[in-house]
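Morning, I've got a small favour to ask if you have a moment. It would help a lot if you went through both lines with me. Thanks so much in advance, here it is.

***
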Amino acid sequence: MPRNRPFQEPPGTGLDDRAEQRRVTLDKRQALLSKMAKERAERSQAASLMPPPPSVPGRRPRDVESYMAALAAQPFHRLGLSEAAAVTPAYQRLVRSAAEVASDGSVQVVIPWPPVRISPSAIAALLTIAAVGSAEQERVKSQGATEMVRRRSDEVRAVVFPYARSTHAQARQVQVGRHQLGAVNFEHVKRYMNGGGDAAKDFHQVLGRVRNLNGRASDGRDYAEFEHPILDEIVPHATPLGERATNSFLLWRTRSKTDIAKQSRSNEADDRDKADFFLYTLRAGERIGVDLRAIKRSPDLLILDLTRNARNRLGWNWVEKASEMIACLREVHPATGVLAIADDPWTYRTARFDILGTRRPGRNGKQIPAPGHVTYSQTPDIVQPVSTAPTPFEGGIRIEADGFFGDTAHGIEAVRHLANSLSDRGDPKGAETARNLVGTIRRTASLPGSLAELARFMEREASAAAASDLLSVYRAAADIATLADPRSLASQVDADDGALGKARDIMRTFDAATPMTTLLESVVKPAVRSSSKSVFVFRSDLVAEFAADRLGGTEPKLAARIESEFIRFGGERILKAVADLPRGGRNQFKRVVIVAPTRTAILTTLSQPWLPEQVAVLADADTLAFAARDAERLADEIGIARLADRLRNFASKANARVEEIGRHVVRFEMPTDDIEFPNGTVVDLSGGGRGERNLVEIELKNKQRIIARRSTEIVLRDDGATLTSFVERPASAVKPGDEVCVIGHSFVERARTLVNIQATASEEIRDYHELVAERFAAIPETSIQAKLRTLVARMGDQSVTRERARYWIDLADELEKPLHDVVPHAPSDRETFMRFTGALGIGEGMASNFWRWAVVAQRSHRLRYGNVFHDAFRGILTDPHAAMASNRDRTDQIRLLRSMAEEHVAVVDNVRSFKG
């Protein structure tokens, strides 16, 4: 190495060099500080020259306790019933929170549990009743007389977002007691005895007249539905701009059906710019800023609906849309309070932290959540009978959880990653298609049988159109083809990952079997052998029927167990039907198996007061993981020790099982979309392939289709009648614009529980058995064998043996059983049944009625009998008075059914004729 190097050490590392570097750095720092100080001075000077921002107007505090006392003093009734009712705990909490945020402009998040169908118009109406009823009373002299009057009440001007017409449905099933409501408002009217008038006077004047209602309608008849006004018509509503519906005005229903409209008024209470009590409706997708600025006076509160249906209206990015609404509200009406309503623990937490939460000052400031309330209410309605007492929690001692992960879950994760990548790269349509593909894979993986088995079942049980429609939600080929198109962004993003190839391979494996198939088989085996009863809860009656059909091939004894109701398969409402049995009957059920539920369905089921001793949950690993996290959060806030124990027990078992099958436990991830099992969009009333095949297809604006013969009677809503009624019209006479009540799978599933068809069927079976026993005994033979020989001969069917017919007449045990344990002893097909009843001398009309209610309604396979249920419910809807006259003890249920039918009305978009 040469010793004469020019540098013995690197340049710039000497002491002088370091001192120079330090000096230069200090000069730069000083120059930067001087520049920043100068900019601050300039900004301060500019700010001092600007006018001060307008101050946020303060709000007058409201006496919330007086509100609640006034609400408690107001009687309510369920529509058409005379029994007094009171507001449920869920709506009491909602009204209290609404009054609190309207008082001080604060924010709150409320989650009623179990989830209830929220009606923002009901919240606004109840808050108005509370505000008007809480106004202070005072005595004043007028024309020499002393009168009790009320001071001016607080205003209630609310905004609801995102709005939908369906949110009014529940409020239309509640009537407000006319005596108390009319008396309170009349005391407000007397405040104007000495002259003057405004929108408040018009409001109180109209409601003060309800004291004179007596149920007499404009047609001269008396109806219980018109003895009191309904809750939905107490507060007028409309959008801030544009046209408004005819059913948006004060007392819109009562005024249109009675003579109360004949009295004069100023109509200022219906004016959205002048009214003291008004509900502004903002739909998703509208110009929020424009609508909010159109509201001249600052509203008292915003009702931010974050329940499941509302989130669906906002779209997959509902958090962003809701945050945008809050930001716009704070800019236009900064003093308005916000009441957010959630229906699951994840949404509840997201609303409190991400949408309405605030962050402390500073770079690392802590996120402060908005105040929240979880309130338990065992009644999902707005009101409940005054005599309702809390139901103690029973059962649910042993909770088990099992699920699946494996290749299916890894493939789902890959497609979900693809969807997120497409969203980040600005391809929302591609991201939506990928999410649809994820839903199809998860839905199919949770089927209780393979796709091939489902196809065979549907082809056998339903018409070709209905089968094709129902199977379409399990087909992924179209979504995969769209994403794999070389021109799409998805095909480029997925070039290395191969997520679409994995999805294609997974769907091919489902043609042979699904993960849920073997999982369910392992649970059914011990239930079939068990000496105690079991109930299996599926997402719909359709899936339950498929499961029973599929498992019947591997478990020969299952069909007999289902027939004898030792094992029950049903949709989400089957567990409630069991819980409603007499105590001795329901306690025979020792186990419930919940198959492929959503996160919310798991927690809702665990929140039921009565459960069998053993509860088993079968779901994919994603659902188990996120349900366990939500259960832990809900347990911390529910405030009911027995329920909290159930939830924590499930969370512990689910988390343990999730780790065992290879999926990690989640804490802060956003939950995956829930699996949906649609009931289909086709309602086939054509009755199969026999007879007339000149058919009519009725397309509805909600994307449903009805296929029927030209002469099939379709149920239409007739608003022109005194009471909103339903009428029959042949399918060939239906035209666009008509409002059709769609009696499809969803309607039947709800109605079967609502009118307790199980109880009706049990009573019909008892009558059927008694009649069969009486007619068989009347056969003029001396022995049972001789009577059976005569009966079989009368039937004239060689396939019917005496041994087979013996079961149909062996009724001694059935006649002694409790009603809920009765099992139909009857032929399983209609043709043989009609031959059997004919041989006993039972008329065809009576036999058809027995077949409909005593056999079909009681058996598990109901898909093929769509016409039967359509005819049965059609008669109840179109001729309610005859139905109530022959079923006096079920009058309330029939009224509830007619009210529920309002939610299944859709407008006809197009009608076409074709040959089937």
